[in-house]
Specification:
single chain, two-stranded antiparallel sheet, eight-stranded mixed beta sheet, 33% helix, alpha/beta, Rossmann fold
Amino acid sequence: MFSFLGAKQVDASLRPASWKAVLLHNSMWVISPLRALKQRIFAGTRWGAKVNPFSLADYPIYPGWKVDEISLDRCSAFWLQPTSSRDFSNSSLVILELHGGSYLHRFKRGYAKSAYFYSQAAGKASVFSVDYRVAPNNPFPAALEDAQKGYEFLRSQGYEPSQIVLAGDSAGAGLALALAMKLRDEGVDFAFRAMVLFSPWADLAARGYTHETNCHRDPLFGRLWGRVPKFRGDYYAGEAGVDYPLVSPVYGDFSNLPPAVLFAGSTEILLSDSRSVASKIHAAGGVCRFYEMDRMLHVGPLFFKNLSDSRWAWWQVESFLTDLEA
């Protein structure tokens, strides 16, 4: 784990993987190609990937919670809330969740479940998940505009910026960084309480060195042998280009950003994105805790919560948010 708090390096060792995490990591070399083949064969059928947009009826609702679907101009959002003030201990916070999916895939059940994880890590805070527009039909700046609409909605509900925790995974984590940079540059009061970032896709130009060094180590986006295509985001960047900072935040200005906690797996192709984000926040005098986890799959803590490694990551999120209260 590489971990930074402000200007102090806390620990420079790699957080070792559990045996279950190693087993899952290795098995994905077989599971991932089979899953991709299944989706290609059964595309558009009930055995393939879900075609219809996610709706309120699809959202898993557990006792003690309620979910509302909110219209945000050109997209929708889902607002997860405890049913009464007695059910949560940190009602002052709200999570603004921006989901991943390579800017190609919309909100889905897995992200709805992750909303509960974010909530629990923040003392059962409410979670506002934006189902933003995606490429290729809606390239940049559609997703960023929708994310900002989500922020503006929370402000209209009486939340101060200091009560909002900006959270995202993969493309959503990159979008969270872009939103913070955009609001700062526009002079908007954006002093978020914190950012929680899982494996941010922050360099859509794919210039990071781990695109080469981890191309045969990443079981989700890599290959055991042969050439691995660059994981670029031209289809999302559109006319802005992949070098534009609000498309690829790694090329942006990292000054005056909110405190951040960041996680990435040691074998990810996108690992260099996370390392660059952490080092640039640190170099700009910001607060960032970065945890590099041995053989953790891309955004693994969101989708493999039962792993001890994932539980450990969520404990670090809770600890980080608690430390900011002190």
